[in-house]
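User:
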Amino acid sequence: MTGIEVTRGDSPLVLGLPHTGTDIPDDCRARLNDTGRAMADTDWHIDRLYAGLVPGATSVRTRVHRYVIDVNRDPSGKSLYPGQNTTGLCPLTNFDGAPIYRDGQEPDADEVERRRLAYHAPYHAALAAELDRVKALHGFAVLYDCHSIRSQIPFLFDGTLPDFNIGTNLGVTCALQIQETVLQICKAADGYTSILNGRFKGGWTTRHYGRPEDGLHAIQMELAQSTYLASETPPWSYDALRADRLRGHLKTILQTLSDWRPT
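Assistant: Predicted structure:
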């Protein structure tokens, strides 16, 4: 499981960190153009933002960058958002629609499969194992998938993204009590905006693992990077004052999820 970091806890809460990694193998890096090597679509500093917020939470993180393979995409290559601009399992463009590979260097089907086996499958093997372990301890598990994105990306969405973007695939992936509780915490956060199942309804991770009837609850949080970065352009610096303010609300969310029990 090269590139997978697992921190084990004993609470029902598991954090997924699919897009914080910046590792790109040399053979892949050599094929990327300058746009690809810039890695602009990283979930910058999300692991730092969530670090230490609540005791007992488990986390699963891949160090591999999403341009190598996106572990939050359907391994079959099926689009999560049919009819809308998005990026795929092995992205060929960045979020602005610009190519990330040198001409003729895009991965073919064999290369995509090699990357799936090398990076996508191990991440989900680790995540599934931790969810199973936590469920065995408590009878249920709550997966909270941690994400962030620039607040303005015309290629993907119009206007400015809300600060908190909660995804539950229209209420399918978790108990409605979880969905509504997280939404109310976000709505009550002074100075922040929020939306439930807007542009981002939950990626493949949330949709794949979210089976509340089986005791597996999954929810995705897509944060606007303007809430904790000094700038959404290079060098994507962490703003401690903004981040600390946001961390207070994230701590409330995670503590609530850690304390939640099925009724």
